[in-house]
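Thread amino acids onto this structure.
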């Protein structure tokens, strides 16, 4: 059996350090990807609240119905296409064809959403957008495990987190400006243009990593089905971490996705005031994100990933509790700043931990599965948070609902911390393999070879 290539260790992780510009290019596409749904959900919610896209009193339910189908599509497409890309052979490499095609289709479907007024049409095009964006994102997520050596994972994950933060900021900013000036069509199309530009940095400038895996005579259908094989359940730390990620993102998703409901319903702001205040909230969260994201990754290299993620959950839970109970916008700003710190920490360090523990040869598959949590957490946040908002608004008075939803977010952060406890945070290549080695508490009972 041949040994590893000079640029890879025995576990398949790259060993050659990458120059900083290459790390930056690998991460830049996250800015475009993150901006799409960060901005789009706010734009759709703005149309529901201020353009009568749905009935008053059922705003949360309407937002859920418009987005739930897309979330199901995302959960199915991303792991499947990510797994297929692990085996793909092409002149562009195994990831880039999917990234380019998906990004081009995103522009088409965003234009369709922007120019549609019927709820059914918006829901259908949102599903198609989720298909195309996850067609690109599933393979793209394999680049960090493919290309980045262990000693640079902290830095690479910090850059991924930073670009996700900036993408959220730009997406929310575009949405806030569009809401303020009633320019929903231009705002939606701008999201697609931004994603396409950042995609070019990957397709034109990023080098491909490891060679594709061999299909060994299997059909593409068999390869696609492999993405959902039960062998993934043997990776116990991976499964627990996906669960922890889901609840952490759901807690933050309740605050972010229903922020306009909170400002409009709980504090009585009109459309113009909501747009203006949302920009202030965006600035506060952005500064907190930027302050925390890079230091968090550096600290996690020294003291371990889990301790830093625990801190993220604590900041997030405290921040949402303050927002839920705040008697004024000024007090709510404090909670939102704490949430911003939590979000920046989590985006950087959770990604690093996931990169550490997955099998490297199947990175597209495992990173795709891990982002089932990302794809589903937002719509579940809207489903439970939105339904709770509508219910409490009816029972306790209009405006009490968003506060109740934020308290649900506090519980989500507590669950995220609880599910993180069994995760073995050691890098995969540092975990002994063999039945003679007793696994520590929370470690995988069996370690599949990467």
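Threaded sequence (450 positions):
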């Amino acid at each position: 059996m041949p040994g590893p290539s000079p640029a890879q260790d025995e576990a398949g992780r790259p060993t050659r350090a990458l120059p900083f510009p290459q790390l930056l290019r690998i991460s830049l596409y996250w800015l475009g990807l993150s901006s799409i749904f960060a901005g789009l959900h706010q734009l759709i919610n703005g149309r529901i609240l201020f353009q009568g896209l749905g009935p008053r009193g059922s705003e949360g339910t309407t937002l859920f119905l418009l987005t739930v189908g897309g979330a199901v599509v995302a959960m199915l497409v991303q792991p499947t296409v990510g797994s297929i890309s692990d085996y793909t052979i092409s002149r562009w490499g195994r990831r880039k064809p999917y990234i380019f095609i998906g990004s081009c289709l995103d522009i088409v479907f965003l234009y369709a959403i922007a120019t549609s007024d019927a709820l059914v049409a918006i829901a259908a095009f949102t599903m198609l957008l989720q298909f195309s964006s996850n067609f690109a994102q599933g393979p793209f997520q394999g680049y960090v495990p493919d290309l980045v050596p262990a000693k640079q994972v902290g830095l690479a994950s910090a850059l991924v987190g930073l670009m996700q933060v900036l993408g959220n900021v730009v997406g929310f900013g575009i949405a806030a400006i569009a809401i303020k000036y009633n320019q929903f069509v231009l705002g939606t199309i701008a999201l697609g243009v931004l994603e396409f530009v950042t995609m070019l940095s990957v397709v034109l400038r990023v080098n491909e990593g490891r060679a594709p895996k061999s299909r060994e005579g299997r059909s593409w259908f068999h390869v696609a089905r492999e993405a959902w094989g039960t062998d993934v359940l043997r990776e116990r730390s991976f499964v627990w971490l996906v669960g922890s990620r889901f609840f952490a993102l759901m807690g933050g998703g309740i605050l972010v996705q229903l922020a306009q409901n909170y400002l409009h319903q709980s504090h009585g702001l009109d459309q113009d005031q909501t747009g203006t205040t949302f920009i202030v909230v965006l600035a506060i969260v952005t500064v907190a994100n930027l302050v925390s994201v890079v230091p968090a990754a550096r600290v996690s290299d020294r003291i371990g990933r889990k301790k830093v993620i625990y801190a993220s959950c604590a900041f997030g839970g405290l921040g949402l509790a303050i927002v839920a109970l705040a008697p004024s916008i000024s007090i709510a700003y404090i909670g939102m700043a704490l949430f911003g710190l939590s979000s920046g920490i989590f985006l950087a360090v959770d990604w690093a931990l996931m990169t550490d523990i997955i099998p490297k040869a199947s990175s597209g598959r495992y990173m795709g599965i891990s982002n089932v949590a990302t794809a589903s957490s937002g719509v579940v946040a809207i489903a439970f948070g939105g339904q709770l908002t509508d219910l409490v608004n009816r029972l306790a008075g209009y405006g009490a609902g968003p506060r109740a939803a934020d308290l649900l977010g506090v519980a989500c952060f507590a669950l995220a911390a609880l599910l993180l406890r069994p995760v073995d945070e050691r890098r995969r290549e540092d975990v002994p393999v063999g039945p003679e080695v007793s696994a520590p508490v929370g470690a995988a009972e069996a370690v599949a070879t990467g």
